[in-house]
């Protein structure tokens, strides 16, 4: 992505749509980490990439058109047929990967021996172990593994839930840093003080970026990629005021509203990373900040996402200055939080001569 940005800037294209570039980058990263697949989707979109993007758009369009909530009508519509075709492409891609990897495991011998070959001392997997490997090697207490269908379902879920949300989060992070140059410069100074090698960042480096992490969290508060979540009541629940919510109900929780509660967040519309300074947050409820949901059914990929965001922000700010774009940005509420007409920001390359 950084190479593409340098090329576009050299050609005189200074305004870039963050959503366009972040979506292809996060999808590229997830394909690598999930399937060990070098998709090259940042240069030339594949059929698989196009299918995933199409499914996201079709899902939102179906939600917003009430007659399409009726399955009988939807699957007979042009959009329904497009949805089925895109699903087939995605499922065939995943099925092929799973079948090929299972075949490789069978050729290498038992799953147990393969696991031993993959492990470091202490039980940690080698860096080239991806999600498919972990799913194929997983066993329950009876020694039973997952079926191919279960593995495909897990992989597809990780792909769908993991790329668009992170792309949205990163786009809004760069927007907020563009609008607050003082915070951006402080992040850049912190990043440069930590990175021993500008071209690489280690796992240990991520833990030494407290202010950058605070900026990421404050952006997630103001512009959470997911705007709401639901919970099913498995039993009657008594609430304040002696109200009873009956078993079987669905509760919709507004993440947008929780993150803007003025009783918890003074001046909630103000971007202030210091809210997440340990001194300011230790008395705050753990459920006041829920960009990844909360409780036993929270986001399984939140640690992956936070690490990815730190890496991308660090690598980007060490090379580029992010500036406000040519037009005002307006929020657009879709499957994830987007911006009307894209989120355009201006970029400047930080060469050795102008690095501070």
Automatic annotation (TrEMBL):
Keyword Calcium: no
Keywords: Heme, Iron, Metal-binding, Monooxygenase, Oxidoreductase
Extent of the signal sequence: none
Gene3D superfamilies: Cytochrome P450
PANTHER family membership: CYTOCHROME P450 FAMILY 4 (PTHR24291), CYTOCHROME P450 FAMILY 4 SUBFAMILY F MEMBER 11 (PTHR24291:SF210)
UniProt family annotation: Belongs to the cytochrome P450 family.
Function noted in UniProt: Catalyzes the formation of aromatic C18 estrogens from C19 androgens.
Protein name: Cytochrome P450 4F6
Organism: Labeo rohita
